[in-house]
Design a protein that fits this description.
ten-stranded antiparallel beta sheet; Rossmann fold; 12 helices; Lipocalin; 3 domains; eight-stranded mixed beta sheet; alpha+beta
Length: 480
């Protein structure tokens, strides 16, 4: 099974969603009410246990709606496919996930069964009910705040749509230095909510309490922001961040000479794109931002995550080889249809050489087709082929680049030196790079760095990282 891990997208099981209201035969309908409710179990993947919670709900039409939660992966209310009930045998299909659940109802409160996905079987026994899953997030601030908070709307005048965000202003008259927070990959809200954490809310609160204003905003097409994310690349998202900068320059509470950018993950690529075009940017903080070409970053990411997840070396080697070829094919062929056709033909020949059974070959081809969908779009094509150095080399403002030493998504040993080298090549000596021990991609203190840990860690953002970032911004802006 080929696994693609793109920046913050790390769910192992549930990477696509599908909705279907399930109708049942008359005989089965008489038993539906007995199944209504939540059924919880655990699935073991390479030694790591993940909770699975199937939710079965009766509708007004006497049909059954089925969803599943994977709380340890931050996934909730994922719709499932067709449900059938034959005697004591329950089957729940998940065709887009290439999976299904088959179980025997052994009592009013237990089901013994198996989750099957892409040809692999995982025992998953279910028990009815159980307490709701609640994760503590002790760093998340609660009002009232010792600063002002304002909902704002600003316009991307290049593509002509509005973006919505929250501006937090320290107590006092200002003018204040300000940071624009730029989210990572995927459609994110203004708090960069992920796995039950709100890192941008925590960062904004900390900075504002320390005299630095903050603007965080919903990505295009999310929350209160308009705009279409389809076919958008990091260049387009840089236009959104640039619009935020232009808006802040109109605010009397903001020091227009002290507008900086803080980008996390992909946001650490977007920030230098903006600054390379706007010499007025006062500073950049890169939080686990890329310094190397996306292709190399993703290959390292895939290998590291598979290894820490306990995948066999042979499987890692096969995935790395396949992904490397696929990325090269993406970069060599700009035509999406042509690429997809060539890629499927190539992989078919690869499978033919392995002498697989027809069933196994069909299964692997279906998995590969899903992989093609994930890479054959404007955003991924841009990310795979782009070298951030072309932007960093043009950045003249002070730069602070932070990375966790246990970051499995953006490796610090590859990316921090690359950022520093590009800045130096462009003549920028105002750069500081810091690798922080025991921190993962979300800047949480962690055990292994495996993305599967994100949701269960109570810490949202390292206090040490918050202090380093804040102290550096204050010192840098004091000298301007």
């Amino acid at each position: 099974m080929i696994k693609f891990k793109v920046m913050k997208r790390n769910a192992f099981l549930f990477f696509l969603v599908f909705f279907l209201i399930v109708s049942m035969s008359g005989q089965a309908q008489r038993q539906l009410s007995q199944l209504e409710g939540s059924w919880a179990g655990k699935i073991d993947i390479s030694g790591t246990a993940f909770r699975m919670i199937f939710n079965l709900t009766m509708t007004d039409a006497d049909t059954l709606k089925a969803t599943v939660d994977s709380p340890d992966q931050g996934a909730k209310d994922i719709p499932l496919g067709r449900v059938t009930l034959t005697g004591d045998t329950l089957t729940i299909a998940a065709p887009i996930l290439q999976g299904s659940y088959h179980g025997i109802i052994t009592s009013d409160s237990t089901i013994t069964g198996t989750w099957t996905q892409i040809g692999r079987d995982f025992p998953v026994d279910l028990k009815r009910g159980g307490p709701p899953v609640v994760y503590e997030r002790p760093q998340e601030p609660k009002p009232p705040y010792p600063y002002r908070e304002e909902e704002v709307i600003f316009r991307n005048t290049v593509e002509n749509f509005d973006l919505a965000g929250t501006l937090t202003l320290p107590d006092g008259n200002g003018p204040f230095p300000v940071a624009v927070l730029i989210t990572g990959s995927g459609q994110e809200d203004r708090d960069e909510t992920v796995f039950g954490h709100k890192p941008f809310l925590v960062i904004a609160d900390y900075l504002t309490r320390n005299g630095i204003a903050v603007l965080r905003f919903d990505d295009r097409g999310v929350g209160g922001s308009k705009g279409n994310p389809n076919n958008a690349t990091s260049e387009n998202f840089a236009g959104d961040a640039a619009a935020a900068v232009a808006y802040l320059a109109t605010r009397h509470e903001i020091d227009a000479k002290k507008i900086g950018l803080i980008g996390h993950s992909e946001g650490g690529l977007i920030a230098p794109i903006v600054a390379s075009k706007n010499p007025s940017i006062a500073f950049i903080v890169s939080l686990a931002g890329p310094g190397i070409r996306g292709k190399e970053l993703l290959l390292k990411q895939t290998g590291d995550i598979m290894k820490v997840s306990g995948a066999p070396e042979s499987e890692i080697k096969d995935a790395m080889s396949t992904n490397n070829t696929l990325y090269d094919m993406v970069m060599d062929d700009p035509d999406q249809r042509s690429f997809a056709k060539k890629a499927m033909e190539w992989y078919g020949k690869e499978l033919d050489a392995k002498g697989l059974t027809p069933e196994k070959r069909k299964e692997d081809m279906a998995s590969f087709a899903q992989a093609i969908v994930q890479v054959n779009n404007a955003w991924m094509r841009y990310f795979i082929s782009t070298d951030p150095a072309i932007f960093w080399i043009k950045v003249k403002c002070p730069v602070l680049a932070l990375n966790g030493e246990k970051d499995m998504q953006v490796n610090y040993e590859q990316n921090l030196p690359a950022i520093k080298a590009a800045l130096k090549k462009g003549g920028n000596r105002k750069a500081r790079t810091i690798a922080l021990p025991d921190l993962n991609h979300l800047f949480q203190h962690c055990t292994t760095g495996n993305p599967s840990e994100y949701v269960s860690i109570e810490e949202t953002f390292s206090p040490e990282a918050l202090k380093i970032m804040t102290d550096w911004i204050k010192k840098t802006m004091k000298s301007k």
